[in-house]
Specification:
Strand order of the largest sheet of chain B: 6-7-8-3-9-10
Bound molecules: adenosine-5'-triphosphate, magnesium ion
Oligomer: heterodimer
Order of helices and strands of chain B: EEEHEEEHHHEHEHEEHHEEEEEEEEEEE
Number of helices of chain A: 12
Helix content of chain B: 10-25%
Order of helices and strands of chain A: HHHHHHHHHHHH
Structural class of chain A: mainly alpha
Shape of chain A: globular
Largest sheet of chain A: none
Largest sheet of chain B: 6 strands, mixed
Shape of chain B: elongated
Strand content of chain B: 35-45%
Structural class of chain B: alpha+beta
Number of strands of chain A: 0
Largest interface: A-B, 18 and 25 residues
Number of helices of chain B: 8
Strand content of chain A: under 5%
Distance between the termini of chain B: 29 Å
Number of strands of chain B: 21
Helix content of chain A: over 70%
């Protein structure tokens, strides 16, 4: 019994090391004082963190990413909230089909989806790169928005809508005064999850960036191809922290149950 | 004059009729309850009155105006839900003020009306709390207050007490009746608890499969059910399907398989052509088979088939030549299984139904 437990503990430790090891190494290398990325670092400093803010292309790409993620988020919300509402409130024929369509971008490999976007948004419709990015990211975020808000609506008691109507509220008024305030935290969580999904996206963005326009992760790729200094490690650490913070917020808002059950 | 009328209403879900040619008239100031088994269409009727549901056919008249197509939010009817349906994101004050704000009442007016209604439902001092911070009974009172405060023309209740425990149920129903009478609000009350309906209603409508079988005051229904369904529903467990019925003077003569019975003719049953006799287990008499002299009137000889202990009384299933009867009898005397006895139908306790 005792023996078995020790074996299990060792195994768990190995799995942890395997999962977290690379992240640990990257974190450590980000504090490198020299010019070349290596492990273990020879001297410690924060200079590469500082360097992030001196590299022009990172600043530009960061701005692009923020704009695209926030703008796309807004558009995805405008489409996603009514869609999620309709999907959970109204019974209609073909509902499951529509549901599947909305969720499909999660199921289709991003690299395929990105290619399709390249073909149609950039190719056929000749949208400028910015607009293409914007549309592409809206599509990436929409299924997350719809799924998170739907899960929040599934706990919503629709009889309170009827209560509001019986007290004199119109259908639209009911939506704004009764439904929205009660799914507020769901919406906030949806926005954050979608933002992360979009901000960290590589496989779709990579098709829709071009000369002079790049999202942050794409810019990181470009950078790694050309430079070998530890700036990337520093950025990675920052990104991990930002993501962790967002996930923590989402967890507080909705509970992580969203990720573990369908 | 009726305050509102449901006229030849039909409602169907998936092409299946739930209500068919449904008619109901309710007078101003009355509390009418809809009582019936699960699935008989009580909620459907209530939701139709509220406007949540559209009828396929028929009309809904309110104060003689056609209200059939008036949307819910223009009707000014209050609805109290089974699960309370309070707004979780609003305080008790704001829950109750919800309808008043939509009616563009001034701030001072809202304050006054909310406080007033909180006093009516005995919830003064709770206005700053949130629904999650109240007990079931308190929530239900907030729900009632919220519906009352808009001064509704009709108040609709859908099993408002079914989530409360037995004691609270009794208190709340008295409360509901008190408020309803104090304010004189026309009310439709749905429940499947017979005692609850009977105790608070001016009139009770017994529903069966989308049809009102009988609409009368509680005492009349209790004593004089008109159909077999109603009789069965309110506890007349014994039925005799008579072969013949002859009305003579003050009596009704009946026969079944050669056995004849006589009932006193009650004014209420006068025109009734029904031939099914119905009687409650409590109203049947049994006694020991004596020396079997002359066979008495309305009596049958029988045998105790099953005997069950009910606490205050015994319940017997008695086998007779015209079928089995269920009889309740006080504890004082008891009969053995298999014992031969005499069963008597008192001449003024049986009713005749369709
Ligand atoms: N949305 C719906 N779709 C299909 N059928 C429905 C719907 N709502 C109700 N029904 C059916 O209509 C019938 C009447 O339902 P209703 O809710 O009026 O019954 P009820 O008398 O209120 O019963 P209970 O005492 O169980 O609440 C039932 O047979 C029910 O199955
Ligand atoms: Mg019901």
């Amino acid at each position: 019994m005792q023996e078995k437990n020790r074996g299990l503990g060792l195994f768990t430790l190995l799995v942890f090391l395997f999962l977290l090891g690379p992240l640990l190494i990257i974190s450590v290398t980000s504090f490198e004082g020299g010019n070349i990325l290596k492990f273990p670092p020879e001297e410690l400093s924060l200079r590469w963190y500082e360097n992030i803010f001196h590299v022009e292309m990172f600043l530009v790409a960061f701005k692009t990413s923020i704009l695209v993620s926030l703008g796309g988020n807004l558009l995805a919300l405008l489409l996603g909230v009514p869609a999620a509402y309709a999907l959970s409130r109204v019974e209609f024929k073909g509902k499951s089909v529509i549901n599947a369509v909305f969720v499909s971008p999660i199921l289709v490999p991003g690299i395929v989806l990105g290619f399709a976007f390249l073909r149609y948004i950039v190719g056929t419709y000749q949208l400028p790169i910015y607009a293409a990015l914007f549309v592409g990211h809206t599509v990436i975020m929409l299924p997350f928005i719809i799924r998170v808000i739907s899960s929040s609506l599934s706990n919503f008691d629709f009889s309170i809508e009827e209560a509001a109507e019986s007290l004199g509220a119109s259908k639209l008024g009911t939506f704004f005064t009764v439904v929205l305030p009660n799914i507020k935290s769901g919406i906030l969580a949806a926005v954050m999850i979608a933002f992360l999904e979009s901000f960290n996206n590589v496989d779709i963005s990579v098709y829709m960036t071009g000369p002079g326009v790049s999202t942050f992760p794409i810019q990181m790729l470009t950078y790694v191809e050309n430079y070998f200094d530890p700036t990337i490690s520093a950025i990675s650490v920052l990104l991990m922290f930002i993501t962790a913070f967002f996930m923590f917020m989402v967890e507080r808002l909705m509970g992580l149950s969203y990720f573990t059950k369908r | 004059m009726a305050l509102f009328t449901l006229q030849d209403i039909s409602v169907a879900y998936n092409k299946q009729n739930i209500l068919k040619d449904f008619n109901l008239e309710i007078e101003k100031g009355k509390l009418v309850s809809l009582l019936g088994p699960s699935g008989c269409g009580k909620t459907t009727t209530l939701r139709l009155i509220a406007g949540f549901l559209k009828a396929n056919e028929g009309k809904f008249l309110f104060k003689d105006k056609d209200y059939t197509k008036v949307p819910v939010n223009k009707r000014n009817f209050g609805f109290v839900f089974q699960n309370y349906a309070l707004f979780p994101h609003l305080s008790i004050f704001d829950n109750i003020a919800f309808g008043l704000r939509l009616r563009k009442n001034s701030k001072a007016e809202i304050e006054k009306k909310v406080m007033n209604v909180l006093e009516i439902v005995n919830l003064k001092g709770f206005e700053k709390r949130y629904p999650q911070e109240l007990s079931g009974g308190q929530k239900q009172r907030v729900a009632i207050a919220r519906a009352l405060v808009i001064e509704p023309d009709i108040l609709l209740f859908d099993e408002p007490l079914s989530n409360l425990d037995a004691n609270l149920r009794v208190n709340m129903r008295v409360e509901i009746r008190r408020i309803q009478q104090e304010l004189g609000i026309t009310t439709v009350y749905v429940s499947h608890d017979q005692e609850e309906c009977f105790s608070i209603s001016d009139q009770v409508a017994i529903m069966n499969k989308g049809v009102i079988e009988q609409l009368s005051d509680p005492a009349t229904i209790y004593k004089y059910p008109e159909t077999k369904f109603v009789a069965d529903f309110i506890g007349f467990k014994n039925f005799i399907d008579f072969d013949e019925r002859t009305d003579t003077g003050g009596k009704i003569e009946l026969s079944k398989s050669g056995y004849s019975f006589v009932l006193d003719k009650d004014a209420r049953m006068f025109n009734h052509a029904g031939k099914i006799g119905a009687i409650r287990p409590d109203d049947l008499l049994i006694r020991e088979k004596g020396d079997a002299g002359a066979v008495q009137e309305n009596s049958l000889s029988g045998r105790v088939k099953v005997s069950t202990y009910l606490g205050r009384s015994y319940q017997y299933v008695v086998e007779t030549p015209i079928g089995d009867f269920i009889v309740n009898k006080e504890m004082t005397e008891s009969y053995r299984m298999g014992q031969e006895i005499i069963l008597e139908i008192p001449r003024n306790q049986m009713v005749l139904v369709d």
